[in-house]
Structure formats: structure tokens, C-alpha cells
Amino acid sequence: MYLPNWMHKLASPPHFFRISGWLAPWLLWPAVALIALGFYAGLVLAPADYQQGDGFRIIYVHVPSAYLSTLIYGLMAAAAAVGLIWRMKLAYAVAAAAAPIGAWFTFLALVTGAIWGKPMWGTFWEWDPRLTSELILLFLYLGFMSLRTSFEEPTKGDRAAGLLAVVGVVNLPIIHYSVIWWSSIHQGPTIKKLDAPSITWEMAWPLLTLILGFTLFFAGLLLQRVQAEVLERERNARWVTEIMRPGIEGG
Amino acid sequence: MSTLGLAAAVLRRDLALAYRRWGDVASPVMFFAIVSSLFPLALSPQRDVLQLLGPGVLWIAALLSMLLSLNALFRQDLEDGSMEQLAIGPQSLPAVMLAKAAAHWLVAGLPLILLAPLLAVTYHLPGSGVTALCLTLLLGTPTLSLLGSVGAALTAGVRQSGGLLALLVLPLCLPVLIFGARGTALAADGEVISGPLYLLAAFAVLAASLVPFASAAAIRISLD
Q1: Which residues of B155-179 are buried (b: 16+ CB within 10 A; e: fewer)?
Q2: Residue A57: which of A47, A68, A67, A43 has the closest Cα?
Q3: Is the CB of residue B187 less than 8 Å away from at least one CB of chain A?
Q4: Are A147 and B155 a contacting pair at CB < 8 A?
Q5: pLDDT at A193 over 50
């Protein structure tokens, strides 16, 4: 199948290794700056909520994590699909590197949500559609990770887990909507707990800063993790020995 | 041999194998009956409690029973090389996978549906609930067999795949479980459940048309 030339070039492991090594600091340092700024603004400058008091401030961790948990799944599945369709080895490395980060952000979103839920709703956990879908997302990440590592041949694990990720994309919306319909299929008290109230600009801009900061942090972290994955996968290749030689000789 | 002829032959062969190994067919059914009878003992034998829990409990028990027989779906075919022959043949592999899933449903799904009314009565479900349980199982279990076949094909080359298979397949089965169990519960309350039934039928059609391609791709990964 046709691929533009720059994609072929990018897909070559040594080339990608060099580019990502150069790019990662340019993503991570701004990420640190943005996260520091966002936390200062969110935790100190932003006014307390008139209803939730200071409790609302956990939103500054919760929302970026929840947003990344879905974004990363999409990216992971897209990378897996590229690997399956074009048989691109690097794409599998990207999917493999993204999965644990995505699982952690999903976990973080669930934990911060639970901590937030206790004082606000009076409960750590509620079988609310959004919470349930997020939990299922965590299971999909865990399934991907365990399937990938359960084969003796790593390439087989990559392809099997990649197929699972792609199947998961088809099924994710179905799961999501079935969970929503499940609670509305039955007539009952409908309190929209998660309906976001329109928030003032003073509260919103730190949030947007943090979303951008978290995303950059993820991108930088992903590049570094892909670098590590590539080194491990290509450990018998000549370019890896050449890169590593100064360290071996010097050390 | 035509693709259709091959699919029919695979289906006949799987049914003949199941007929000769009667124990493999009986164990999921017995599992279904035993798990369903544990709940009243562990929770409470009270009539209203059982009526409330019945639909969900019976659906979960049916789901787990079907999962029980998935492990073996492709294992022997892979070990004796017949799956390789099917894959390199000129006929379409997705059709073969559809036949395998159909055989799994006939062997592991259909007996559960036949047993379900009896168990539903022990949970004191009203007549409408018993009918709804059978209908939702009839429409829902084919989807479970199909989704399960992808998981089984993905893990066919993995040793000790039981727990892994559950981790992969159960989240995907969630929509079927929700509409099956909730639909049954609604019907037991005397409501019309054409909505959940249509949705279950739609899932089954969607799964039958898409999933065989995924399981064919999965079994090709397990083959090389």
C-alpha cells in the first residue's frame, strides 16, 4: 500500500531514535513549565468554588487525566492499525510504549474521581455511566498489555495485541453507549451529576494550561518510552551497538 | 470445494466431535446449573430477593458457562494442523470462523437456553420474565460465541490462557450482558422490552458480519 516518503523515513528505527531524542526535551521542558504554571494558578490563584470550596481543585488533575486516557487509547489503536496494515515495526513499538501510560492516566482519572466523589457525592464509587466506561477502558488497556507479553515470540504478541486494540475501538462506542442506555433504560431519578457547570475564566484557564501541559508531557514521555522500546527491540542491530559503544568503552 | 461446502463440513465435524465427547458438552451446562443454584444459598432464599437478582445472576452464569468452553475452541485444530490446512486453502477463512462460532453456539449456547426456563422458575421469575430470559439469551448468546471466538483465536497459541481470555472477552461482552439482563428484569416487571430485544438482534447481526474477519486475522497471527 502507498505511503509517502517521509513516513517511510520516519518509520526507520535509527532515524526515529535520533529525531525523538532531539524532540523529547523540547516537549518535556515546556510541559514541566506549563504544569507548574497551571498548578500554581489552579491551586493558588483561582477562586474557591462557592459550592465545593477548595475541593473542586482536584479537577486540575482529574480532567486532563481523563482526557488523556481516551486520547491515548485512540493513538495506541491507530498505531496498532498502522502496524497491522503496513507491517511497520515502529508502530508496534509506539503502541506498546503508549499502553502503560494510558493505563496510568485511566487509573489516575478513576482515583482522583473517587477522591473527589467522596466529599461531593458522599461516595467513592457510583455505577454511573461515565465511571463504568472509564473502568472498562482500564480493563481494555490491561488486556492489551497482558496479551502482548504472553507470547513467546514478541512479534506475535505485538500483532495479537494490535488486533485486540483495533477490535476495542469498534467496541468502545458500543460499550460506552450501552452503559449510558443501561442507566436510562430504566425510569428513575435522573440527577446529572457530571453535567459540567459553565466555569469562570479564572478557573478555566489553569485547566486549559494543564490539559496542554499534560498532553505535552505525554508526548515527550511517549517518545522516550518508544526510544527505550526501539533499543530493546533492535538490540542486535548494528546502529544500536554503534550508539551504545561510547558508553560501553567509556564506562 | 465451495466456501459454503467447507463451512458446512467444518460445522458438521465440530458437532460430530462434540457428540463423541459428551462430557465436554455437558460440563458448561452443569456449570450453569450449579453456579445458578449457589446464589440462593449464599445470598437469601427469599422470594423477592431472588426475583430481583434472578435476571442478572442467570445472565452472568450463562456468560461464564460459555466462556468455560471457549479455551478449547481452536486448540486441537491448531495442534493437529487442520487449522493450517483451512487457512492455506482457497476458501474464505472468515466463513470457516463463522462456522466454528456457530458450532460453539450450538454446543455451548443452545443447551443453556433450553435449561434457562427451569432455572428461571427456581428464581420465582414470573412467566413474562421466563420468556424474556429465553428470548434475550437466544438473541444474545450468538454474539457471545462470536466475540469469544476472537478471544479464543487470539489466545490459541498462549499457554494457561484461561484468565487472559476472560480479561479480553468479558469487557467486550458487556453490552450484551447489560441489555440481556436488564431486558429480562424489565420484562419481569411487566414492561415491554422490544427495545432491548432489537438492540440484541442488532448486536448479533453486527457481530456475525464483522467478527469473523477479526477472528480470521487473529487465527492467522496464531498460525505463524
Answers
A1: bbbbeebeebbbbbbbbbbbbbbbb
A2: A43
A3: no
A4: yes
A5: no
Q: Is A58 helix (H, G, I), strand (E, B) or coil?
A: helix
- Residue A58 near residue A64, CB atoms below 8 Å: no
Task: Check CB contact under 8 Å for A160 and B168.
Answer: no
The grid coordinates listed for A123 are 461516595
Q: What letters, b where the CB count within 10 A reaches 16 and e where it falls short, cover A198-231?
A: eeeeebebbbebbbbbbbbbbbbbbbbbbbebbb
- Is A147's CB within 8 Å of B182's CB? no
**Grid cell 421469575 — which residue?**
B125
Q: Provide the pLDDT confidence category of residue A191 given band limits of 50, 70 and 90.
A: very low
Residues from chain A that touch B195, judged by Cβ atoms under 8 A, are 185
Find the chain A residues whose C-beta atoms sit closer than 8 A to any C-beta of B.
Answer: 84, 136, 139-140, 142-143, 146-147, 150-151, 156, 159-160, 163-164, 166-168, 170-171, 174-175, 178-179, 181-182, 185-186
Residue A53: strand pairing partners: A49
Does the ipTM surpass 0.85?
Answer: no
Residue B140 in grid coordinates: 444474545
Q: If you search the block for the grid coordinates 446449573, which residue do you land on?
A: B33
Reported as a single tens digit per residue, the pLDDT across A32-90 is 999 999 988 888 888 777 777 777 888 889 989 999 999 999 999 999 999 999 888 89
Q: Tens digit of pLDDT for each residue in A106-152?
A: 999 999 988 888 887 777 877 777 788 888 899 999 999 999 988 88
Question: Do residues B71 and B152 touch, judged by C-beta distance below 8 A?
Answer: yes
